[in-house]
Amino acid sequence: MITSTILLQAGGAGGAGGIMGFLPMILIIVVFYFFMIRPQMKKAKDHKKYIEELKVNDRVVTTAGIHGRIVEISETTFLVDVGGSVKIRFDKSAIALDASKAQNAAPKA
């Protein structure tokens, strides 16, 4: 009788200990989501919205650091005038969000 009581108590404690053992892992996943995944998703959403709002004559900076002015917009690309008579076609994803916003906010000369 004493043996069965000890086994029941040990079995009950083991179940609660299992959940407590997973608690740190769950907390790590939650912290990782809020500090890493969620901000990246927001940044990607903002970049997509910015690309959709670009129009002809907007000044942009590509991810390669090339500065220019949008001359033509197609479904997946921009034709960018980089100076003189040089025009380069870039994929829409090649536009750098932060640098282009800063350049468009600056007064145009």
TrEMBL record:
PANTHER family documented for this protein: SEC TRANSLOCON ACCESSORY COMPLEX SUBUNIT YAJC
Compartments in which it is found = Cell membrane
Classify the source by domain of life.
Bacteria
Q: Which species is the source of this protein?
A: Parapedobacter luteus
State where it is primarily located: membrane
Signal peptide coordinates? none
| TM stretches of this protein | 6-35
Q: Which Pfam families match?
A: YajC
Protein name in UniProt: Sec translocon accessory complex subunit YajC
Q: Name one GO biological process term.
A: protein transport
Q: State whether keyword Protein transport applies.
A: yes
- Its membrane topology: Single-pass membrane protein
One cellular component term (GO) for this entry is: plasma membrane
Family assignment?
A: Belongs to the YajC family.
Record keywords: Cell membrane, Membrane, Protein transport, Translocation, Transmembrane, Transmembrane helix, Transport
